[in-house]
Amino acid sequence: MVTCRASVIGKATLLLFLLWACISPHSPVEVRGKLIPVDSLHIPEKDGAVDSIIAFYRTSLEEEMGQVLAYSAHVMERGSPEGLLNNFVADLIMEAGEEIYAPDDGKPIDFTLLNYGGLRTSIPEGAVTRGRIYELMPFENEMVVITLTPGKTTALFDYLATAEAGMPVSGIRLRVEDNKVRDLRINDAPLDQERNYKVLTSDYLAGGGDNMVFFLDPVNYELLGKRIRDAIIEHLVDQHRRGHEIESSLDGRITTE
User: Fold this and answer.
1) Which residue segment(s) compose the domain that 153 sits in?
2) In what order do the strands lie in the sheet with 172-177?
3) What angle do CA 219, 225, 230 make, to 5 degrees?
4) Is 246 within the bounds of a domain?
5) CA–CA distances in Å: residue 8 to residues 5, 13, 232, 233
6) For residue range 189-224, what is the model confidence (pLDDT) as tens digits?
7) Cis peptide before 81 (omega within 30 of 0)
């Protein structure tokens, strides 16, 4: 009888302790530390071994980025509704795409569309270095050919008509009035509502980037296996090898009223 009563009392005591532990606030824990800035002022001594490794790669990278690829006849900057840089990049990408594209259906690329925001700096007059092209196009975007229905092709040009900035295009002439398409020529022919169109663009835009949702769920999606930046570099190297300066012009491919 005594043993049973002691067992009950012990269990009751344990239960009260557990309840108290659950409702009792925990004591605050103080954590102390020290901020140690990692910079040249607080750590003035370099690690010789690490610094020599970094210096090797730094020198190698600086030499590569400082390589002159070509010479430009003038400054090229992006602009709206078109710009010298817009036209230069779009035309050379169109040319590069046509050279490597081998379609199963035998139908060529109809036109090229890139994005204004993808051109991150200008091309200077005179020497154009590899580093400058990496600044111009710092992304790893791939060249893609997207086949669109007539309806989605129409949506593409409606997008261009209302865009706040001029998009780099090649192979078209577009006249916009009051944010509406008033005249359109694709390779000197009007838009044909009975056929699909092949558009050369970047994989970023092909995925709906910059709200270009008309590229989503296309008739066909074909990666060309070449980065846009690489195509630009190859074009510059080729022009320099031929003894040509690179240049661009405004030709009214997009006009607004």
Assistant:
1) 60-256
2) 180-186, 172-177, 254-256
3) 125
4) yes
5) 5, 9, 86, 86
6) 999 999 999 999 999 999 999 999 999 999 999 999
7) yes
Q: Say how far apart CA 191 and CA 65 lie, in whole Å.
A: 43
Q: Is residue 51 included in any domain, yes or no?
A: no
Which residue type sits at 8?
V
User: Tokens 């012990």 label which residue?
Assistant: 10
Q: Is 122 part of a structural domain of the chain?
A: yes
Does residue 204 form part of some domain?
A: yes
Number of C-beta neighbours around residue 213 at 10 A = 13
Number of domains in the chain: 1
Residues 16-45 pLDDT 10s: 555 555 554 556 777 788 777 766 666 666
Give the CATH number of the domain where residue 171 resides: 3.90.780.10
Under 8 Å between Cβ of 89 and 149:
no
SS3 of 210-223: HHCHHHCCCCEEEE
Judging by beta carbons within 10 Å of its beta carbon (0-12, 13-18, 19+), is residue 150 exposed, middle or buried? middle
AA identity, residue 242: R
CA dist 57 and 104 (Å) reads 44
- Both tokens of 56, joined, read 């090797």
Measure Cα distances from 184 to 67, 88, 174, 243 in Å. 41, 21, 5, 36
Across-strand partners of 169?
A: 113
Interatomic CA distance for residues 169 and 78, integer angstroms = 12
